[in-house]
Amino acid sequence: MNCMKRTLPATAVLLTVLLGINHLAAGQPGSPAGTRPAAAAPRAAAGRITGTVTDAANGKPVSYATVSVIDPATNSSVNGGVCGDDGKFVLPGIPAGTYTVQVSFLGYKNEDRTGVVVPANGVVNLGTVALAASAQKLGEVVVTGQKALIEEKVDRTVYNAENDQTTRGGDATDVLKRVPLLSVDLDGNVSLRGSSNIRVLINNKPSAIAASSISDALKQIPADQIKTVEVITSPSAKYDAEGSGGIINIITKQNNLSGGTLGIDASVGTRSSNLSLQGSYRTGKMGFSLGGFGRAGYNIPGSFTNQQTARNAAFTYTDPTTGLPVTVGASTYTTLQTADTRQQQAFGRSVLGWDYDINKHNSLTASLSYGARNSHNYQDGLRTISNSPQGNSLRDVNTVDNSGTVDASLNYTHTFEKPQQEFSLLTLYSRNDRTNNFTNTLLSSDSNSPSLRNENPSSNEEFTVQADYQSPIAKTQILEFGAKDILRRVNSDYSYFEATGANGEFVPRAGVGLNNGFNYRQNVTAGYAAYTLGLPKGFTLKPGVRYEYTTITADYNTGLGSVSIPSYGVLVPSVNFSRKLANGNVLKLAYNRRIQRPSLQFLNPNIQASNPLIITQGNPNLKPEYTNNYELGYSTLYKKANLNFSVFARNTTGSIQSVRRPELDANGVGTGVQRVTYDNIGQEDAYGGSVFASINSGKFSLNGGVDAYYAVLNNKVSDVLYNASNKGFVASGRLFGNYKLTEFWGLQAFGFYRGQQVQLQGYQSGFGIYSLSIRRDFAEKKGSIGFGAENFFTNSITIRNQVNTPLLDQSSSNVLHNMSFKINLSYRIGKLTVAPTRNGKSINNDDLKGGGEGGGGGMDLGGGAPGGGGGAPAGGGGRPAGAGGQRPAGAGGAAGGYPGARPGGAPGTVPGAQRSAPTDSTKAATDSTRTQPTTLPGAVPGRPRPTAQPADSTGRKPATPINGNPINSPANTPSPGTTTPGGITPAGSPGGRP
Predict the structure, then answer these.
(1) Dihedral pair phi/psi, residue 896, rounded to 5°
(2) Where are the beta strands (DSSP E) in 27-71?
(3) CA dist 700 → 640, 695, 893, 930 (Å)
(4) 861 by DSSP, 3-state: which?
(5) What percent of the chain has pLDDT over 90?
(6) Which of 75, 278, 335, 405 gives 20 to 30 Å between its CA and that of 428?
(7) Rounded (5°) CA angle 904-909-912
(8) 918-948 burial by CB neighbour count: b if 16+ within 10 A, else e?
(9) What is the pLDDT of residues 899-928, one digit of tens each?
């Protein structure tokens, strides 16, 4: 028998897989077990009801209106759900019969459609259901929801933080530990699928403080004010090309209700305390908000140990005096360092927001914020025992890292009569002033080493202007284009001083490059175009292209002249392709190219040597690195569990990597000191995936997931003494949940494990944390009090770092005592009434490779917590600039958020009552009865109101009417949740509206 071998084109294989999954997914249960009686009619015999809910006065869609299907014979609800952003609803799985359909929403009169006949396997389209406004005033509104904790969008994964009570009393760092795909170390440094090259935005806004330290910016955001966290793994062309790993967008809770509110949250614990005040006021067309948050960390002891062996090969040099050759034999220096460590930290931020509707089509928004940080890391009794020329010594080390940040923005938005047509002009000014100093006081020494002090004040200013325009060009097509310019001015002044003895006077220290100033000017001009195309059978395609041109000038204050850094342009394409299956499951495929510019953390020539045996210095001549990202994702509902799967591949060239070398003296003789610097010498590849599951049964919820990838690192250096490569698996996981003990008592638990990290020249050990808390609501749920404990069975966490090269072996460990207990208290007051949804857009400066380490970071350098004390790589200069930056804490919105969007969970339909959470109208065949909390009030007295799992994380209405336009994605919303009539979701539409 002859066999013929055939090769199928890759596109044919992909199309076969996409079409085949539709048949496989159709066989899955459409609703959780137990939501229907065993004798219910088969799903195939059921019909469905569709329609669109609008405002009778202006024809605009009413987002999140509740729709109930009632059997008039039994006066009971047989199905129900909530409209999407576009006001559309789809209720499948309705047995054949005659029903009453009731539509209700806060601030409107109920609308009943009686005698609705649903045939078997038929579709009943109610068309437009217009709701008339009511004049009802509200008492205090209690906003709650039952959203799925994790939602999959075309270009992002959305974590609905407002549904998770396990973070109360914490900050944004605690929230990010629970988000799939992310990993957070003990210093609060965040990585996405193993990459720390990420951009963090707050309500789509940057801030210069995150250019200094993302981890410090996150600590200024209270967890209780976070609505959602969006992990954008495949940014469209509208986003800056920066961030090879992706973008994290934190959406804070916001308010569009009239009247005044005031909320207070406080926490007191054995390791830290925080206080948050959030107030807002809206009247007529104008709204104001004012928020303040402060957090203090104290009583954080630990210890630091470092062992290193430096080797030098034998060599010959010429003596400059005699002119004769001198041979130096091979040498080996061993060093042991130990110290006790402690930390003190304080963070604070205040935000003032304002918005104003000029008229129907024109609106203004503005915000002004100020953030401050004060961080001290101590190494008490840093003892060094060494046979190197450094000898033995005893020192006290104090590292100070303080900063203040001002952000001011003014944005204008104009909408047109044509739905989805919009123009916006956005401006932003941001400045971060930072001081990163250390004092190394010598207590005793068997050499002539002096006491040292490094002063490194710095500033980072950014001026940004951005213009965006979008318009539908056909029934299922949207065109977006725009331009942006970012001007950065970065300055870093550094000075070294030395003193003789413990009480000697500090005087400037002589040496090339020790006392100078580094000035860095960067201008990034960009233009982009993106196109969204809705295709039949639930397919959506969104290609885009962005071009960025970067010009850089850099020089020193004295002596060293300018640094030659050539200008460069980069073209970055992106494409998002998705299919929404008939049962609501989503399959997505994406590719994008990204760029990573070095920030001042890597460029700063300041020599950071708080630990005199481990010094770091930036490289002003670094070039950007480039990354190609590929992703395939799938989300589904299996019985009562929401499941999310994804696989990815990431390839990076010109990777910016740290290089460790033994320091040599003028004659090439080893000194026993280790120097850390940076070069574009690496290639990084990562291949992995993740799975996340979420179960919610009303009283009980459980959520967990695992992220894993295989890392391959290579610096491609030809010299065998400095060549390095490494590879291995990296995994992390999380498990957390809530249990409602009674109507007023609740229990929360959380656990997170971060596995061993693969590094170019070694490894870093993993760690685990866990917590348990109990909470009681009081005063009709206007207030709550909670008691919690973290790591209550383990007194400390130890992080170990191992480095092995032909010239250096190093083993260091940091021990952090983080067992803690705390009390949380929150209370809110205020009277609210309904107000219209606001328009609003914001700037995203998501470019530049920024540092993850927090103040005083740097594992090798010791200090308080792992990474404390000695400063991150390039420490003393400590990232005073560079990274485009992200805005911490809310950026001018209500209750600390950006002004003008729907509050978390959307208001309920009955004063003081719980309301069902919104469902995404794109899930046309998903059974919205699959979650039926029995405690939710019905739309009619005595009748339970069903709810559904939503897909829209933003909780916003479209900015313009949708009438006559099948593309219903709100203009540039970060998380689209709307569809064409055929169930097509325009891919992405990311960007503007916070």
Answers:
(1) 85, 0
(2) 47-55, 66-71
(3) 12, 8, 32, 15
(4) helix
(5) 24
(6) 278
(7) 75
(8) bbbbbbbbbbbbbbbbeebbbbbeebbbbbb
(9) 333 333 333 333 333 333 333 333 333 333
| Cα–Cα distance, 291 to 104 (Å, whole number) | 33
Q: Residue 288 above 80 pLDDT?
A: yes
Contact assessment for residue 234 and residue 574, using Cβ atoms and an 8 Å cutoff = yes
Asked if 908 and 945 count as a contact pair (C-beta separation under 8 A), the reply is no
What gap in Å lies between CA 557 and CA 519, rounded to an integer?
7
Residue 614's alpha-carbon distances to 19, 65, 393, 426, 859, in angstroms, are: 57, 61, 15, 44, 11
For residue 321, what pLDDT is reported? 76
CB 810 within 8 A of CB 306: yes
Q: Do residues 52 and 103 lie in contact, with contact meaning Cβ atoms separated by under 8 Å?
A: no
Instruction: Name which of 59, 236, 105, 148 is nearest 902 in CA terms.
Output: 105
Beta-ladder partners of 380: 340
Residues 931 and 946: their CA atoms lie apart, in Å, by 7
* C-alpha distance from residue 855 to each of 337, 597, 832 (Å): 22, 21, 41
Of these ranges, 498-507, 598-607, 683-692, 942-951, the one predicted with the greatest mean pLDDT is: 683-692
| Nearest CA-CA partner of 341 in 380, 305, 307, 382 | 380
CA 532-28-640 angle, to 5 degrees, is 95
Q: SS3 for 21? A: helix
Instruction: Give 518's contacts (C-beta < 8 A, 6+ positions apart).
Output: 491, 492, 493, 494, 554, 556, 557, 603, 604, 605, 606, 620
Condensed to tens digits (0 to 9), the pLDDT of residues 460-502 reads: 899 999 999 999 988 889 999 999 999 999 999 999 899 986 6
List, in sequence order, every residue forming a beta bridge with 722; answer none if it has no partner.
Answer: none
Residue 842: the pLDDT is 55
Cα–Cα distances (Å) from 55 to 63, 129, 257, 596, in that order, read 10, 9, 17, 46
* 226 in Cβ contact with 251 (< 8 Å): yes
Residue type, 152: E
Whether 694 and 688 have beta carbons less than 8 Å apart is answered as no
Separation of alpha carbons 223 and 230, rounded Å: 15
| Pick from 913, 930, 445: nearest CA to 641 | 930
Write out pLDDT tens, residues 656-713.
888 777 777 766 667 778 788 888 878 899 999 999 888 877 678 888 889 999 999 9
Across 364-371, average pLDDT: 90
Give the pLDDT confidence score for residue 154 in this predicted structure.
Answer: 66
Q: Please, which residues have CB within 8 angstroms of residue 427's CB and are 6 or more apart in sequence?
A: 409, 410, 411, 464, 465, 466, 843
Upper half-sphere CA count for residue 102 (Cβ side, 13 Å): 22
**Sheet order of strands, 76-82 included:** 76-82, 66-71, 97-104, 111-118
DSSP 817-844: ---EEEEEEEEEEEEEEE-PPPP-----
Which residues does residue 878 pair with via DSSP β-bridges, in sequence order?
none
Which class for 270: exposed (0-12), middle (13-18), buried (19 or more C-beta within 10 A)? middle
CA distances (Å), 831 to each of 138, 818, 835, in order?
Answer: 7, 41, 13
Cα–Cα distance for residue pair 224/264, rounded to 1 Å: 10
> What distance in Å separates the CA atoms of residue 343 and residue 274, rounded to the nearest whole number?
16
What number of CA atoms fall less than 13 Å from residue 872's CA on the CB side? 25
Work out the angle at residue 22's Cα, subtended by the Cα atoms of residues 21 and 26, and round it to the nearest 5 degrees: 110
Token pair listed for 312: 């030098």
- 217: alpha, beta or left? (left if phi > 0; alpha if psi -120 to 50): alpha
Is residue 971 scored above 60 in pLDDT? no
Distances (CA, A) of 891 to 121, 479, 820, 994: 49, 29, 30, 10
Comparing CA positions, the residue from 84, 5, 34, 63 lying closest to residue 924 is 84
* Angstrom distance (rounded) from CA 550 to CA 412: 27
